[in-house]
Amino acid sequence: MTEWTILDQAHTALRQAVAGIPQDGWQLTTPCSEWTVTQVFQHAVGDQLGYASLLSDTPRPEEDPFAPSGTLSAPAGDLLDNALQAAASAWAGVDRDAQDVPVPVPPFKLPAPVGAGACALDAAVHAWDIAVATGRPSPLTADLARDLLPIAQQIVEGPRAYGYFAAALEPETGDDALATLLRYLGRTPSWTR
């Protein structure tokens, strides 16, 4: 646990999503249209390692999280545990009042609560990607989505210009907090394979 509740909840969501991937589910398509479940998983693991390496003395990801190979270098559970433990340990050592915490996405430094939220946003949205790609309910709850939306609104627009995030989709009448967040991140809430 990191004592950053938003990050702990997002890590739990990612663990749940990955634990539910069936043996034959790793090559399924995902809402990230260019990537399979394996590649989204590699990206999520790499991003958590990226945050950890900037905050602590841990190694950077072996692969570029934005060019995942689709081939796992170790058992998925081991890769995920190592990445989430590294990120949790790194964030546990960050002062909540720090104003210039290094992060792996533009603007590359954020106030600590926003940086921890950015790390959480990454884990949580990819938990959703993996869950829906494998035909399961979202582990990204409406409450967590509600907490992540203001973080997304603070950090997404700059990196979106560099291709870190898809173009936002128009909100629709009746959208709940989860749908609002997903559309803001360029995802269709009703996506199915």
Describe the protein:
This protein is mainly alpha-helical and 193 residues long. The chain has a single domain (5-67, 74-184), classed as Up-down Bundle (Four Helix Bundle (Hemerythrin (Met), subunit A)), CATH 1.20.120. Helices cover 51% and strands 2% of the residues. The protein has helices at residues 5-19, 37-55, 76-92, 112-133, 142-155, 157-160, 177-184, and strands at 101-102, 109-110. A two-stranded antiparallel ribbon has the order 1-2. β1 (101-102) and β2 (109-110) form a beta hairpin. It starts with a helix and ends in a 9-residue tail after the last helix. The mean pLDDT is 95.
Topology as a string of helices (H) and strands (E): HHHEEHHHH
The secondary structure category is: mainly alpha
| Largest sheet, strands/sense/barrel | 2 strands, antiparallel
- Any idea how many domains? 1
- Strand fraction: under 5%
The CATH class, by name, is Mainly Alpha
Query: Count of DSSP E strands?
Result: 2
The helix content is 40-55%
Ends apart, CA distance between termini: 33 Å
Q: What is the mean predicted local confidence, pLDDT? A: 95
- CATH names the topology as Four Helix Bundle (Hemerythrin (Met), subunit A)
Number of helices: 7
What is the molecular shape?
globular
Q: What value does the Rg take, in angstroms?
A: 15 Å
State the strand order across the main sheet.
Answer: 1-2
Note poorly predicted spans.
none
CATH architecture assignment: Up-down Bundle
